[in-house]
Specification:
Elements lengths: L2 E5 L11 H14 L1 E2 L3 E4 L5 E3 L1 H9 L4 E7 L6 E5 L8 H10 L8 E7 L2 E4 L9 E2 L7
Helix pairs in contact: 1-2
């Protein structure tokens, strides 16, 4: 499971972010001078699957790179649910939002991963790395 540094400009968002949380997270990242975890990105489309707030924080801080963990979103081990209600959401809806730029509301999609016979939130694969913001500046 490799982590790659990618240019922010190459990634696509499928979901908006909660602005209050974004403000808090950006402040914390600036204070810590590190990004603690990578984001999860589909290797085929470059759509962000998990980590929109981290992505937007770095963007607003004027950084150009972000550590990503690449997955194959088409894999049957990757599942999508909704956070707040029982309505269905599909991978196709997530991909469409990311590709056409019509973002879904914050916390619409909740991505899960099958590991053995367990289903976990996809953030379980986002290992802590504490990467310096200097390394993300592109200089």
């Amino acid at each position: 499971m490799d982590i790659f540094l990618m240019d922010l400009k190459d990634l696509k968002e499928h979901e908006m972010v909660n602005l209050d949380y974004l403000k808090k997270l950006k402040r914390q990242i600036r204070k810590d001078k590190v990004l603690k975890k990578p984001i999860v990105v589909d290797k085929n489309t470059k759509i962000i699957i998990d980590g929109h707030s981290r992505f937007n924080s770095l963007k607003q801080l004027g950084l150009s790179k972000i550590p990503v963990f690449l997955i194959d979103y088409n894999s049957p081990e990757i599942l999508v649910r909704r956070w707040n209600d029982n309505k269905k959401i599909t991978k196709e809806e997530v991909l469409s939002a990311g590709l056409n730029g019509k973002k879904l509301p914050p916390k619409t999609s909740k991505h899960m991963i099958k590991i053995g016979n367990k289903i976990e939130h996809i953030s379980i694969i986002e290992k802590r790395l504490n990467i310096s913001l200097k390394k993300l500046s592109g200089d």
